[in-house]
Amino acid sequence: MQAVFRERVEVSGYTSALVRLLHSPCQQLQVLATKALARCSVLEATSARLVREGGLEVLVSLLNREAQTYTDALIEKDPAFARDTGLVTEGPGVPRSRKHSMMPDTVGSTGGGGQGGQQLAGLLPNGEGGAMVGAGPGLEGIADTISAPDLNAGGGTIVGDSELLEAVSEAIWHVSLLPGHVSAVKNLTAVPVLVALLHHNDEKVLTNVVGALGELASDPECCMTLLRGGGVTTVIQLLRRTSDKLLLNVTRALGSCAADEEALSALLQQDGLRLLWSHLKNPNCRVQASAANAICTCLQQESEGLAEVVRSLVGGIELLVSLLESESESVLSAVCAAIARIARDPQNLAIMTDYGAVTSLSRLAVRVGLLW
User: Whole-angstrom Cα distance, residue 152 to residue 182?
Assistant: First the structure.
């Protein structure tokens, strides 16, 4: 969705209508509303409105419902973790996702042409929600779409097992992009559910889940939940995947985790640094830059023996220095930051000098100077 459409949706007050549509008993309608909110919530104003009007609570309720199989498996595997993080709240073996749903049952069925149109009329913004865009035909078209057979409850198109979960996880990810919303997501006990979903087999769901956890891991409590639930180990294993979108979120998530001493220790013990380093060879420059930023965060920690670990990576320093010839400014920025950390060790500095790091940095300094 283009930025101009996101802004139009927000200004016109349709965000409030979409939040209300989350309560629909029609799963296909829930999916469509959630997808729209996921795309629009990249906009800060929309994200704030979504949280303010209770949409986040409904999204987490949907997340709990759709992730029940995975949370049950995590509860069975680690009951202590489940109790400590709130996955079990009503006694042994009863996951949080089985609690009474936060979604009210007062909304009528969307089945039937006239009823669907009447329901929509109550959900769309009125004068208080902002000016309507293109009155008349546009609104009628939306009503016709909702009362069409493929959206009727109990008939028509069947929603895929992962479709709603993909939409919900994307919406929660985008809401979590704002630091002020991290606490809201954490307080709804969504983090352990997202940790359980790291074992989902759908790559799109995984991409969104890891994206959300990457933002939430900036909070020490969320990072500890991710670590205790085995999430750091699982995310490290995802570095072996090939999807650029997934790898971009995985490297960002590990970069967030690396700021925590315990998470960094787990990352180093499980070969995470070497796997991150291997993505400096990724053909996608965004993945390269994200991997380099994660490496830099790892190196910022004063972990004993880290300089030696860097030297043990065969060809690692040479590869890093070679990226000083990259055409991407984001890659250059991240690589220079990593080199600055590595150069604090005399032996590593000598190795980088042999590979021509000083010469390459000098050329970059001249280029930057000319730009100024």
Answer: 35
